[in-house]
UniProtKB/TrEMBL annotation:
Signal peptide start-end: 1-20
Gene3D superfamilies: Chorismate mutase
Domain Chorismate mutase span(s) in chain numbering: 64-154
GO terms under biological process: chorismate metabolic process; salicylic acid biosynthetic process
Name this polypeptide is given: Chorismate mutase
Organismal lineage: Eukaryota, Fungi, Dikarya, Basidiomycota, Agaricomycotina
Keyword Amino-acid biosynthesis appears in the UniProt entry: no
Top-level taxon of the source organism: Eukaryota
Length: 165
C-alpha cells in the first residue's frame, strides 16, 4: 500500500506541474489535460491494477454519452478510422496534383514546408482537443509517406515524358 501511495504522490506532482504549465489552476477539472500538450509528463509505471472501468463516459454527442463498453469504444474508433481513410485519400489526391507543378525530383521534398505543416498541426491541435504528441506523430508519418509517393509519381511522369518525346 505504501508503494501505491508513493506512486500517487509522484503522479499527482507531475500532473500539478503539467497543469500549471498549461495554465490550469486545478487538477480536478480534467486530470488528463496534462496529456494534451508537449512534452508529456513523465509518470512512473504503476505496478498495481486499477478498477475497470474507471471514470465516467466522456464523449457527448447530442443527448447521448459514449461509451459504456470497450466494444462501443472500438466501434467508434472504427468509424473514425473509416473517415480518416477517406480524408487521407483526398490528401493523397492533392499530393499527386502537386507533382504537376514540380519539374524534378529535387523539388519534391521541401523540408521547410514539411516543418510548416507539422508545426501548424501541433499548434492547431489544442483547438480541436487533440493531444499535440499525436498531431506531431501523425503529421510526421503522413509527410514521410507522402514524399516517396510524390517521388514515384514525378519519376514515372518523367519516364513517360521521355518515352513520348
Amino acid at each position: 500500500m505504501q508503494k501505491w501511495y508513493q506512486y500517487c504522490l509522484v503522479a499527482l506532482s507531475a500532473l500539478t506541474v503539467a497543469h500549471a504549465s498549461a495554465g490550469s489552476t486545478s487538477t480536478s477539472d480534467d486530470f488528463a489535460a496534462a496529456c494534451y500538450s508537449e512534452p508529456l509528463p513523465l509518470l512512473p509505471v504503476s505496478p498495481d491494477n486499477r478498477t475497470i472501468p474507471w471514470g465516467i463516459p466522456s464523449i457527448v454527442t447530442g443527448n447521448t454519452t459514449c461509451c459504456s463498453s470497450l466494444d462501443e469504444v472500438r466501434a467508434g474508433i472504427d468509424a473514425v478510422d473509416a473517415q480518416l481513410l477517406s480524408l487521407l485519400s483526398q490528401r493523397a489526391a492533392f499530393v499527386r496534383e502537386a507533382t504537376r507543378f514540380k519539374a524534378t525530383h529535387d523539388v519534391v521534398d521541401v523540408p521547410s514546408r514539411d516543418q510548416q505543416v507539422n508545426d501548424g498541426a501541433v499548434a492547431d491541435a489544442p483547438a480541436v482537443n487533440l493531444p499535440q504528441t499525436i498531431a506531431r506523430a501523425v503529421f510526421s508519418a503522413i509527410i514521410n509517406a507522402s514524399v516517396p509517393f510524390e517521388l514515384c509519381i514525378v519519376c514515372l511522369s518523367s519516364l513517360l515524358c521521355f518515352y513520348r518525346c
